[in-house]
TrEMBL record:
It catalyses: guanosine(46) in tRNA + S-adenosyl-L-methionine = N(7)-methylguanosine(46) in tRNA + S-adenosyl-L-homocysteine. InterPro entries: SAM-dependent_MTases_sf, tRNA_(Gua-N-7)_MeTrfase_Trmb, tRNA_methyltr_TrmB_bact. It comes from the Bacteria. S-adenosyl-L-methionine binds at residues 78, 103, 130, 153. It comes from Actinomyces radicidentis. GO terms for molecular function: tRNA (guanine(46)-N7)-methyltransferase activity. This is tRNA (guanine-N(7)-)-methyltransferase.
Length: 328
């Protein structure tokens, strides 16, 4: 059913969101798709006091959502599925794997459920929620085989970069839901966001021998750290955000790009970036055996708060921190 917007509340303007307003005008066809296929595919998420927020008391059981309670199957979570091209292609090719599309835009949700229904897919569900909250609290620890974050909103203006999804707290949330050996796959066509992603992965990873991060949280391994340091440099142009010369991480490491993930179909969105001359950069982190603990998360958040305070007082912050915290 079309979403009902709640009354305005403090949460709408106090919470830093990684997505813009998730409404959008639905066509009659989209309304019909939601009415026909929504009950089958859309997972109901109790909200807090703003649209797409997640009630802190909410606990989702993926096995129940997919209709096989107690049977543990591989689970892939895609954050920001858009029209669902990537996740639906993989779901059709791998019927023994469950695929959860976390998406906030209702027009996109309508397309995903319509296409899933027409294809007769049983292994797809759509979760209409803020991914940063969903992964941090509602889903079980260690429930996912993979998490995909493909082409998240780059929030290109400096004052908006605090809204970028990929950050240290989000890395902690991903670590929380990934099983040991599980993969976090990322991709972007904006160079400065790729560098930010790389810096986040370095800070949360045990790096290959010979590379030393400035802050190591052993929730991940980053096997491609330092790989292809010159990627995108050959197409550098002044003031271009899609390409550029890698400035290096806080640890002094350049590169860190993975081979293109073969399981990601070439979407129209990615093709547009290629056509416009932007370099597509993939990144991959692998979950270690290190148990996730809330205490570990609090340590990361406390570190971010200290860095933000230092930035406001004229000190240096983590990569991307000065732009994010100093933005209005």
């Amino acid at each position: 059913m079309p979403q009902q917007h709640p009354p305005r509340s403090h949460a709408i303007h106090a919470r830093v969101r990684s997505f813009s307003r998730a409404g959008g005008r639905l066509t009659d066809t989209q309304v019909a798709a939601l009415e026909e296929f929504g009950p089958r595919y859309v997972v109901d998420v109790p909200r807090d006091d703003a649209i797409r927020t997640v009630d802190p008391a909410c606990r989702l059981d993926p096995t129940a959502a997919f209709g096989h309670v107690g049977e543990v199957r591989p689970l892939v979570i895609e954050v920001g599925s858009g029209s669902g091209e990537a996740i639906l292609a993989q779901a059709a090719a791998n019927p023994g794997v469950d695929y959860a599309a976390v998406e906030v835009w209702e027009t996109a949700i309508a397309k995903i459920v319509r296409d899933a229904g027409r294809a007769g897919l049983d292994n797809v569900r759509v979760i209409p929620a803020d991914a940063s909250q969903l992964l941090a609290t509602a889903l079980p620890v260690g429930c996912a085989s993979e998490v995909w974050t493909f082409f998240p909103d780059p929030w290109r203006k400096p004052r908006h970069r605090k809204r970028r999804l990929v950050s240290a707290p989000f890395a902690d949330a991903v670590a929380r839901v990934l099983r040991p050996g599980g993969a976090w796959r990322l991709a972007t066509d904006w160079a400065d966001y790729a560098w930010q992603m790389r810096d986040v992965l370095e800070a949360a990873s045990a790096l290959p021998e010979g590379l030393e991060a400035d802050m190591t949280q052993a929730y991940f391994r980053y096997p491609d750290a330092g790989r292809e340091p010159e990627q995108g440099a050959e197409t550098w142009e002044a003031d271009s955000l899609g390409n550029g010369i890698d400035p290096g991480s806080p640890a002094g490491v350049r590169g860190g790009w993975s081979p293109r993930f073969e399981g990601r179909v070439l979407t129209r969105f990615e093709q547009r970036g290629i056509d416009e001359g932007r370099t597509i950069r993939d990144l991959t982190a692998v979950r270690t055996e290190e148990p996730w603990t809330p205490e570990h998360r609090e340590t990361v958040l406390a570190e971010l708060e200290r860095e933000a305070a230092a930035s406001r007082n004229g000190g240096s912050g983590i990569a991307g921190g000065a732009d994010a915290e100093g933005a209005e």
